[in-house]
Structure formats: C-alpha cells, structure tokens
Amino acid sequence: MRAPSISLPRVAAVTPIPRLTNRTRAWLACLSCITFLVMLFVAAALLGRSGLDIDFLHRKLAPSLAYPFGTDWLGRDMLTRTVLGLCRSLAIGLLAAGCSSVISIVLGIMAGTMGRRVDSVLSLLIDTVMATPHLVLLILVSFACGGGPQGIIIAVAVSHWPRLARIIRAELLQLRESEFIHLSRKLGKTPSWIALHHLLPHLLPQFMIGLILMFPHAILHAAGLTFLGFGLTPHEPSIGMLLSESMRHLSTGYWWLAILPGLSLVFTVKLFDILGNNLRTLLDPRTAQE
Amino acid sequence: MLRAEKICYRYDKDIPLLEGVICTINSGEIVGLPGPSGCGKSTLARLMAGFDHPQSGIIFCNDQALPASGFSPVQMIFQHPELAVNPRWKIGKILAEGNTDCSELLQRFGIGLNQLERYPHELSGGELQRITLIRAMTPATRYLIADEMTASLDPATQALIWQTVLSWAKSRQVGVLAISHDASLLNCICDRIDNGFCLQSPSSHLREPIAA
C-alpha cells in the first residue's frame, strides 16, 4: 500500500531585502554628512547677500514658502542669515579646531617621547587648562585678543587642545611599551620605520576623530561667545548673533527668529558627531569588517 | 653559543631577583628552563633576547655582545601572541616585517594563504602564535627564546608547534631556550634541562605580601 504523499505547504519565494553591513552604513552616513556640509556652502554662494538687505515692507513675516525661515524685524530673510551664519561658524570652527589640534599633537608627542621631566611639566599644563572653567578661559582669552573672529579662534584653540593632547600622549606611552614595538626593533627596524608604520597608523585615527569631534565644541563655543557679546560684530551674520538678537523678540511671539536658526545649529553640530562616530567605525579594524 | 655570564638584575634595589646567573645555549641545542612563578625565568629570557639590559654581567652571542640595532640573531616568542602583533596590520604585513620568504613554513604550520588577508583579531590564539613563530623563524635567526610559548594553547596545537620548531631548529642548527612550568613537556622536547638557574633564585627572594 502506498502511503499518501505529503504535500508541504508552499512558501512563496521572498527576495530578501539586502541588509546593509556596518561598513556600508558607516560610509553612507559619512557621505551624507559631507554632502550636507558641502551643500550648505553651495547654498550660501547661491543665496548671495541680497537677503541681508533691509526691507521694511516684509518685516516680521512668519515662515512661508517665500521665506522658509521667516523675516526679522528689519525685513531681512532669516534663511539667508542662518545659512551665512552657519557657514561663518563652520569656517571659524574649522580654523579653531585645526589650530587646537596642531597644538595638541605637538604637545602630545612631546609628552609621550621626550622623557619623564617634559612629560610631567606638560601633564601639569594639561591638568591646569582642563581644570580652568571653559567659559571663563574662553571669555578672558577672546577679550584679551580684542574679540572678533581672531579672538574667538585663539580662545577656542588655546582652550580645547588638552583632551586630544592627553589621548595622543596616552596612546604613545602605551605603544612605546607594547611587545610588538619591542619585537619590531629586534627584527631590525629603525626608529623612523617604526614611527611611520607602527605609531602613525595608531595615532592618525585618534587624531582625526579627535579633530572632528572638536568641531562641534568649537562651533558651539564660537556661537556662545558671540551670544555673550565677546565674539563677532553685529553687522556680520553669525548664529550666535542671531540667537542673541532674537532674545529681545522671543517674548513677543516671534518664535521663528530663535527656534529655526537654533535647530539648524544643533543639526549641524549633530552631523559632525555622526561623522566622527562613523569614521571611528571605519578606521578600527575590529569594526571595519562587520 | 649564546651565553649569559654572571647576570644580575633586580626590579627593587633591596630585593635581588637574578644574582650571578649563568646560562648557556649551544647552536642546535634545545635547552629547557623550568622554575616556579616569579623566580625570574621571563626576566632572564628578556635579558638574553636583548629586550632589557642586565645591571651587571654580559650576554654573548657567538663571542660578541648582542647587537644594539639591526636584526637580532636572538629572537623571542612571548606567551600572548595577540600582544606581539600590531592589531591594525593584516597577517601578511605582520609576517613580512620579519620573514619575507615563509611559504614553506606556512605550509608546515598549516596556515592557509587566505589567512594572510585577515586581521589578528580574526585568528585564534594558536594560529596567531604560529604567525609570530613564522615571523621569527628567519634564515638569520640563530637562537629562539620561547617564553611559555604554548602555555595557553590546546595539546594538539602545542604538539604541532613544538614538532615543527624542533625539526626546523635541528635542521638549521638554531639553539632554542624553552621556558615552561610544564616539566613533562620540557623532558619530552629538550636535549638538556638547565636546573641551576632555579636553584640559584629561591622563591624566598620574592617580596612577602604586605599584611593590611
């Protein structure tokens, strides 16, 4: 007797949605951050400075299609002011973080390689700067340097280097004592070869991620100093100035003057954060191949 | 001949660790160095490989002092291979740092060519230890100091590694100093056991734990 054949339920062939790997996702995130930042500068060039002209016919307009970010009490287009202000903040942040990271890499390498005495002096300096309240140091230095863009850049540069310097110093001290460096010497490699092939690949990711994560601090502090009146002059658009001016009009119901530029600043800062974290994923061999 | 002549070394100036230690390895000889933990086996290994310098006494390699720079004829293998390789390098680059012609050794150690494209964290401890060995087993290597080289590996890998290293050392007249707690392993693989060292450094020299 033949057993009745069992018919298995048919499963419709489902084409699986291709799952993105960590690496692809990190690349996509980095690319979209960079694209957005480039677009910001392109938008600034396209919008031009016409939106900054005073126009009393279009004062205090709420956000609309013609004026996506509204207009202020002098009839200036808030979108143009925000975009130009962000670009200015980014340029200042770039310069300040760049100067700061140069200070940190020089002092970090000096502390990590020039012996115990130099190390203890530099460590004391690092601790001193880190122990000083950030904002106080920023205000003092920026005021002493005469305010303006150069005041902000110098202030941010001299107050932000210790964290990265400490990371580079620690990394160097740890690397110098590691077995694979000792072994490399015994395999006949010269100190310069070891610095180029062993130390640099370890220091470079730390440096780049430190630099990128320093941008948001620099941008926020540049805006903060301007908000407090120690930074940029009022006639140039900057995010700090926009926020500080809008304070006078917030209580009268002109919410778009503060909220939209403020959100754009938060968004831009968050982008750098995402960029830094994804770069870390890409550069670390432990996560780069997942 | 690799010879440590009346070596003295102490980490703490009041507590001697190595006092007048003499240790000799001839070409092609496998010497075992047993001893309890903390008696200074690894310190002696580091001194003989030139990683540290003795406070007194001299290390001779073929009647000359150990070279300060350039390729050292005395190579050392550590217990933890994951610390002995650069974690940011692929295996191929790690091998090429010491040994540029290693296809035969790769085959003898059973390392596939596909492993060369991987990073150290993607390999097991046994595979990684074989990689550090291949890197050190160059034609210019005259002495190999193995400090607990197979202590953290499974017996099968341990046997494979020692078999390959011993046949390589015998065929090229390379002297090996095998350091281990495992007396039976040393009895099995060594031509000679150097017991003098652990008698000279009794554990009474070690610092007593300070009572709280």
From TrEMBL, chain A:
<feature type="transmembrane region" description="Helical">
    <location>
        <begin position="253"/>
        <end position="272"/>
    </location>
</feature>
<feature type="transmembrane region" description="Helical">
    <location>
        <begin position="135"/>
        <end position="159"/>
    </location>
</feature>
<keyword id="KW-1133">Transmembrane helix</keyword>
<dbReference type="InterPro" id="IPR035906">
    <property type="entry name" value="MetI-like_sf"/>
</dbReference>
<dbReference type="GO" id="GO:0005886">
    <property type="term" value="C:plasma membrane"/>
</dbReference>
<keyword id="KW-1003">Cell membrane</keyword>
<protein>
    <submittedName>
        <fullName>Peptide/nickel transport system permease protein</fullName>
    </submittedName>
</protein>
<keyword id="KW-0472">Membrane</keyword>
<keyword id="KW-0813">Transport</keyword>
<feature type="domain" description="ABC transmembrane type-1">
    <location>
        <begin position="86"/>
        <end position="276"/>
    </location>
</feature>
<dbReference type="InterPro" id="IPR050366">
    <property type="entry name" value="BP-dependent_transpt_permease"/>
</dbReference>
<feature type="transmembrane region" description="Helical">
    <location>
        <begin position="26"/>
        <end position="47"/>
    </location>
</feature>
<comment type="similarity">
    <text>Belongs to the binding-protein-dependent transport system permease family.</text>
</comment>
<dbReference type="Pfam" id="PF00528">
    <property type="entry name" value="BPD_transp_1"/>
</dbReference>
<dbReference type="InterPro" id="IPR000515">
    <property type="entry name" value="MetI-like"/>
</dbReference>
<feature type="transmembrane region" description="Helical">
    <location>
        <begin position="90"/>
        <end position="115"/>
    </location>
</feature>
<feature type="transmembrane region" description="Helical">
    <location>
        <begin position="207"/>
        <end position="233"/>
    </location>
</feature>
<keyword id="KW-0812">Transmembrane</keyword>
<dbReference type="GO" id="GO:0055085">
    <property type="term" value="P:transmembrane transport"/>
</dbReference>
From TrEMBL, chain B:
<feature type="domain" description="ABC transporter">
    <location>
        <begin position="2"/>
        <end position="211"/>
    </location>
</feature>
<comment type="similarity">
    <text>Belongs to the ABC transporter superfamily.</text>
</comment>
<keyword id="KW-0067">ATP-binding</keyword>
<dbReference type="GO" id="GO:0016887">
    <property type="term" value="F:ATP hydrolysis activity"/>
</dbReference>
<protein>
    <submittedName>
        <fullName>Fe3+-transporting ATPase</fullName>
    </submittedName>
</protein>
<dbReference type="InterPro" id="IPR003593">
    <property type="entry name" value="AAA+_ATPase"/>
</dbReference>
<keyword id="KW-0813">Transport</keyword>
<dbReference type="InterPro" id="IPR017871">
    <property type="entry name" value="ABC_transporter-like_CS"/>
</dbReference>
<dbReference type="InterPro" id="IPR050319">
    <property type="entry name" value="ABC_transp_ATP-bind"/>
</dbReference>
<dbReference type="InterPro" id="IPR027417">
    <property type="entry name" value="P-loop_NTPase"/>
</dbReference>
<dbReference type="GO" id="GO:0055085">
    <property type="term" value="P:transmembrane transport"/>
</dbReference>
<dbReference type="Pfam" id="PF00005">
    <property type="entry name" value="ABC_tran"/>
</dbReference>
<keyword id="KW-0547">Nucleotide-binding</keyword>
<dbReference type="InterPro" id="IPR003439">
    <property type="entry name" value="ABC_transporter-like_ATP-bd"/>
</dbReference>
<dbReference type="GO" id="GO:0005524">
    <property type="term" value="F:ATP binding"/>
</dbReference>
